[in-house]
Design goal:
Elements: H1 7-12, E1 13-17, E2 27-33, E3 40-41, E4 46-51, E5 56-60, E6 65-70, E7 77-79, E8 83-88, H2 143-156, H3 173-182, H4 200-207, E9 238-239, E10 244-245, H5 250-263, E11 268-276, H6 278-288, H7 300-314, E12 320-323, E13 328-331, E14 337-339, E15 341-343, E16 346-348, E17 351-352, H8 360-375, H9 381-384, E18 389-393, E19 412-416, E20 420-426, E21 429-443, H10 449-464, H11 468-471
Parallel strand pairs: 14-18, 18-19
Antiparallel strand pairs: 1-8, 2-4, 2-7, 3-6, 4-5, 6-8, 9-10, 11-21, 12-13, 14-17, 15-16, 19-21, 20-21
Helix pairs in contact: 3-4, 7-8, 7-10
């Protein structure tokens, strides 16, 4: 961080720190800078795009001025709270400039420890297991920094008023949970976070034995000057004659961790049903011509989404979550309907908030906006948080069906297969009909076979006779 040499300098130069753009995130990768030193910026102007474990997000600057310095190059993973850009908010007022960033003192390293118990590394919702960051910040021992760190931790604890004793190690709740799972005593961990806060990397480091002859880690270096900025080599895809290596980080890494965590935590059960959706396809064609649906996209997914919402209304117990910490089933009285979307950065699952309250035209508009935002890579972390049930449409790839993995924290996911013209017995005769296969995966801790079967059967019945959207609603 830049040290201001006098009061006028402090007032002239302002620093913008990496914000927590999603609840509980600890780091983000700088994907692209939209400004360079010397550029004029205004309050609210987007200066860079960053990728967190949840999404790619554009960051606006909160003040006016002229860019003085970019602290990190594109491709660098930066901890939340680190300064990423300095702005001269009073250009032309003098030749004063902020002093260069002070060289941080070497970070004290923990003594070699015996082999720690090898427990599982849980994937915490909103955090993930972070192992990509190897940079450590110097510990700042000032009383003011320690006080600020304590205040930050208190706010992370959702308003709990308990006072943290001075002897208690400073760490955020997710870090304490990680230490507990790994069998690490936080009192034995050397903190490297700002203000003496113990980070996830500190806990992981304490869990690993240190080789006897291992060289001491190099202290973090000062941020490079603007002209020295260059893409970090760690993010470059390596292409060889026989193989290509792509770094797994950001959204893709978080997705992989979440899927592994879901697959090996929630006992999955998947049921299938094949259904005649000819009447649904006729309804879609009619709605496309309806003036009340003008300006919105009408497709089979819209009717399927509405059918699932009606099925949840008839079987509300399926809309729930498993609270492992409190050993409780949490039933949700709202439906945030997730729609799995394939993007260049991987599969993401944004959701439509309170989808159960939307009319058919409103739901169509929400689906269209969700899909277009996802394709543009502009989905925000907030749009992906809080989902309750998800739909994944594998039929767009010509696939008949699948066994989808639950989105973490949700109870059920519906896979929709391709709709194809097939021979089908209709009114006692074999006729060509539009047919598809549905697959419902659910968490068997929450949803037993009877409940899961009822939900899937209701969705199928509505798609076969879409008038039930009215009679069952």
């Amino acid at each position: 961080m830049t040290t201001m040499t006098d009061t006028s300098n402090a007032a002239r130069f302002r620093e913008f720190k990496m914000p927590d753009v999603g609840e509980g995130l600890t780091e983000a990768e700088i994907l692209k800078w939209y400004v360079q030193p010397g550029d004029t910026v205004t309050d609210g102007q987007v200066v860079c795009e960053v990728e967190t474990a949840k999404a790619a997000v554009e960051l606006p600057i909160p003040f006016d001025g002229v860019v003085h310095e970019l602290r990190f190059p594109e491709g660098t993973t930066v901890d939340v709270g680190q300064v990423i850009i300095a702005v001269d908010v009073a250009p032309g007022s003098g030749d004063a400039a902020p002093a260069p960033a002070a060289e941080p003192a070497p970070v004290a390293q923990p003594e070699p420890e015996p082999e720690a118990p090898k427990g599982r590394q849980p994937v915490l919702v909103g955090y993930g297991v972070s192992e990509s960051s190897t940079k450590r910040r110097a510990r700042k021992g000032t009383a003011a920094a320690a006080s600020a760190a304590a205040t930050a931790i208190q706010s992370e604890m959702n308003g709990h008023a308990a006072v943290v004793p001075e002897s208690r190690p400073l760490a955020k709740p997710p870090v304490r949970k990680l230490a507990k799972d790994l069998g690490i005593d936080l009192a034995t961990v050397v903190p490297t976070g700002e203000g003496g806060i113990i980070t996830r990397e500190d806990v992981h480091a304490a869990a690993k034995p240190v080789p006897a002859q291992a060289p001491a880690p190099v202290a973090a270096q000062a941020a490079p000057a603007p002209e020295a900025l260059a893409p970090a080599p760690a993010v470059v895809t390596t292409v060889g004659a026989r193989e290509t290596r792509i770094p797994v980080k950001g959204v893709r890494k978080a997705i992989a961790q979440a899927m592994v965590g879901s697959a090996f935590t929630a006992p999955h059960v998947t049921e299938f049903v094949t259904v005649d959706v000819t009447r649904t396809m006729k309804l879609v064609a009619e709605l496309k011509e309806d003036k009340d649906m003008a300006g919105v996209r009408v497709n089979p997914l819209l009717i399927i989404a509405k059918a699932l919402l009606v099925a949840i209304k008839r079987n509300p117990e399926v809309n729930a979550a498993w609270d492992e910490a409190n050993q409780e089933i949490v039933q949700k009285h709202y439906v945030n309907l997730g729609i799995a979307a394939a993007t260049p950065r991987g599969l993401i699952v944004p959701n439509i908030k309170d989808a159960h309250e939307q009319t058919l035209p409103q739901l169509a508009a929400s689906l269209g906006e969700l899909v277009s935002t996802a394709r543009e890579g502009k989905t925000s972390p907030a749009a992906m948080a809080g989902g309750t049930v998800t739909i994944t449409n594998v039929g767009v790839f010509g696939v008949d069906t699948g066994t989808p993995i639950l989105n973490p924290g949700e109870s059920a996911i519906l896979a929709v297969g391709a709709i194809k013209l097939q021979p089908w017995v209709h009114k006692g005769k074999v006729k060509p009909r539009q047919v598809t296969t549905l697959a419902l995966s659910f968490d068997h801790r929450l949803v037993d076979g009877e409940l899961g079967s009822k939900v899937l059967a209701d969705v199928a019945a509505i798609l076969e006779q879409p008038k039930r959207l009215i009679t069952w609603a």
